[in-house]
Write a structure and sequence with these properties.
The chain is of the alpha/beta class. The chain folds into three domains: 281 residues, Vaccinia Virus protein VP39 (Rossmann fold), CATH 3.40.50.150; 53 residues, no CATH class; 126 residues, Trna Endonuclease, Chain: A, domain 1, CATH 3.40.1350. It contains 15 helices and 21 strands. The protein is globular and about 100 Å long. The two termini are 27 Å apart.
């Protein structure tokens, strides 16, 4: 089994095809919550200027249909589904009202959770992140699949954000359900995630020796600690021999099942603009507490890859799965930015011209997002909504300190022509960009190349000239490994694009 790998595609199919039985040490999943929301990515340019580029990442809405019917029948026929699972799934649709959205959601989750249990080692555990919309239903489903005795914790992640006046209490928490594959065998390393002492508690430990900070406590004549005998001083050790002892400050307080971890604020360099992004601190705590170095961590709904970043940082192996090239592109960008020498694979992306054409025929938006990621660009705009701006992406560079510059990216899946190169020139002028990249499936015609060459060069302050318009075929990028000739960064910039509130809808953060 490959590790340190990103899979593009349906996680159910990938789990069945690529993930062997009893091979995973830790699973974390943050699936859609069935909250009936549409999550949008609203990027901010790396210059810090706001952008109107809004991309629909996914719709968190489920409907009963043929796919739900098929999945339900597969559950009933599955050899890895227990009688408890089949009993629950036989009554659940009727209880909720068959063909409801919640029933469809639970069927979708059930068939995937069965595969995740199959993939876990006996020493493994699973964290299911959800919110109160469906957490109560998911708890019953997890009991049926993993068995009630393997339930370990319901963790409440408490967070704060801008307060709003509502007709109900402000909703400031998510739920994380923790189950073991087999209780008693699962790995735990909770000493790694101890909570810090309060300043008041630490202030009581005033003295220090070779073992660390301590306070002097008292005993009664039977040798038992005296609850209120605090505030003793070193001279009391001589004054009351045998009736005092040194209590040392430990590393921290054993962790509770409610975690106060802030969401990613708008100013954070961690924030990518990807919907449902969770704080790295949250995932580091989970990975640290329930896996060891060298273990394999799996996230089947990995979005922009926070689980993978935490695993890589803590020396774990990892597997990530997502169904959009928008997410895969964000993960590649993030991993390579955070770990410049990282080695990993991407499975499911086009590897040749024919598979690229197939993707373009299946979904032109996915094709555009994927093509933009080939040159390290950032996608721009939701082509499903509004007029075409002539921009499919941006590639930023900084060849002069504190001056961020950009190249416009255009992607063409169909036949290309010289008029499109002229259009790109117009967009560059309109956007006051320095360069343009034209990515196409078909080879450039001679008039196209001549028009591009006629635009001359971008003269960089670094003293080098770069072709102002560069044309690449997808085959050149994928098969030949060609890269754009773009100025490098000369100053460290680690500020990713940022998400904002869109049309009154709160974008949930990963």
């Amino acid at each position: 089994m490959d590790t340190n790998v990103l899979y593009y595609g349906n996680n159910l199919e990938i789990l069945r095809k690529y993930i062997p039985d009893s091979s995973i040490d830790l699973v974390y999943l943050d699936p859609p919550f069935n909250s009936k929301a549409t999550y949008n990515v609203l990027y901010k340019e790396q210059t810090g200027e706001p952008s109107q580029a809004q991309i629909t990442a996914f719709e968190d809405t489920w409907h009963w249909g043929l796919e739900s019917e098929k999945a339900l029948q597969e559950i009933f026929a599955s050899p890895i589904a227990s009688s408890a699972v089949k009993d629950f799934m036989s009554v659940m649709p009727n209880f909720l009202g068959k063909k409801t959205d919640m029933a469809a959601y639970l069927v979708m989750m059930c068939i995937r959770l069965l595969e995740l249990k199959r993939s876990l080692k006996d020493t493994g555990s699973i964290y299911l992140h959800c919110n109160p919309t469906a957490s109560h239903y998911l708890k019953i489903l997890m009991d049926a699949i993993f068995e009630p005795q393997n339930f370990l914790n319901e963790i409440v992640w408490c967070f704060s954000e801008r307060e709003r006046i509502l007709k109900t209490w402000n909703k400031k928490h998510d739920i994380i359900l923790l189950y073991a594959k087999e209780q008693g065998k699962h790995k735990t390393f909770f000493q790694r995630v101890l909570d810090p002492y309060s300043e008041v508690t630490k202030g009581k430990f005033k003295y220090k020796d070779e073992k660390g900070w301590y306070q002097i406590r008292g005993k009664n004549i039977m040798g038992s600690p005296v609850r209120r005998a605090d505030g003793l001083r070193p001279e009391h050790e001589l004054q009351y021999p045998g009736l005092t002892y040194r209590q040392y400050l430990k590393e921290g307080v054993p962790p509770k099942d409610w975690w106060v971890i802030p969401i990613i604020n708008k100013a954070s360099s961690e924030r990518l603009g990807y919907p449902t992004q969770k704080p790295l601190n949250l995932l580091e705590r989970i990975v640290n507490a329930s896996s060891d170095e060298g273990d394999i961590v799996l996230d089947p709904f990995c979005g922009c890859g926070t689980t993978l970043v935490a695993a890589q940082k803590l020396n774990r192996k990892w597997i990530g799965i997502d169904i959009t090239h928008l997410a895969i592109g964000a993960m590649k960008w993030r991993l390579e930015k955070k770990f410049p020498n990282i080695q990993y694979k991407v499975i499911g992306e086009p590897k040749d011209l024919e598979s690229a054409k197939e993707l373009a025929n299946q979904n032109k938006y996915q094709f555009q997002w994927w093509a933009v990621s080939l040159v390290g660009g950032q996608p721009y705009g939701d082509k499903k909504k509004g007029a075409d701006t002539g921009i499919d992406g941006y590639l930023y560079f900084m060849d002069e300190k504190d001056k961020v510059r950009k190249a416009i990216i255009q992607v063409k899946a169909g036949a290309a022509s010289v008029s499109q190169i002229r259009d790109l020139v117009g967009v560059i002028q309109r956007e006051k960009a320095e360069m343009g990249l034209f990515l196409c499936l078909e080879s450039a015609t001679k008039p196209m190349q001549m028009e591009a060459d006629s635009q001359g060069f971008y003269h960089s302050p670094l003293g080098k000239d770069y072709p102002k318009i560069q044309i690449f075929t997808i085959e050149q990028l994928v098969v030949e490994g060609r890269k754009p000739d773009i100025p490098p960064w000369i100053a460290p910039v680690d500020t990713p694009p940022t998400a904002k509130k869109v049309e009154g809808k709160t974008i949930k953060m990963l």
